Prior knowledge:
By secondary structure, this protein is mostly helical. The chain is built from ten helices and three strands, in the order βααββαααααααα. The chain has a three-stranded mixed β-sheet, with helices on one face. A hairpin with a 2-residue loop joins strand 2 and strand 3 (70-72). Helix 1 packs across helix 4 (86-104). The termini are far apart.
Amino acid sequence: MTATLAMHMSDGLLNAPTSLLFSGVAIAGVGLALVRARADLDDRTAPMAGLVAAFVFAAQMINFPVLPGVSGHLLGGALAAILAGPWVGALCVSIVLVVQALLFADGGITMLGANITNMALIGTATGYLVALALRRLAVRSREGLLVTAFVAAFVNTVAASCGFVLEYSIGGAAGYGTGTAALAVIGVHCLIGIGEGVITAATVGAVAAARPDLVHLLRTARPRAVEEKAR
Length: 231
């Protein structure tokens, strides 16, 4: 019997050594994020981090059955990184994944390290790097910001699914071949990435329209201009 392939890995999807390996990766990554996030947390970032975590939690609870044995959902890494910064964003998504695994059985507890590695670390870091690369476009106009958020969220989703495939190629134990898993998961998340891009762009655009000083990507790009506009 094969297990369901999903971004939220369930128990048994990876073998024990691979699960332990990525638990170590997750612990190291979250530990680094905890240290580096201290520099980003202030009276604006802290409330935003709470709102982002709540939004991502709600969005991730909605799973979409796309193909037989395959499901997917929104990730939120790029959204968290653009609004709260990459380190705080990674912590927000990690907390969501821990709560979902422990209280709602959404993602296996033994797979928590792999899930954090994919969605909180790979997804958030990739989304933020893309946003950082496009930051000159983002600060130029509202349209540029929306395009930046969309592209970052799309790439974040696909990159996280590639992390899934990498882990599965190392120690997959669900009965699917790696090629089948890659085709299903990456293909599905290319579609999900479009939806995530739209939601991320709409959310970031709404926050930027009301309080641009709360958008980490903009604040760190041109702090003086943002401060003046916020007054």
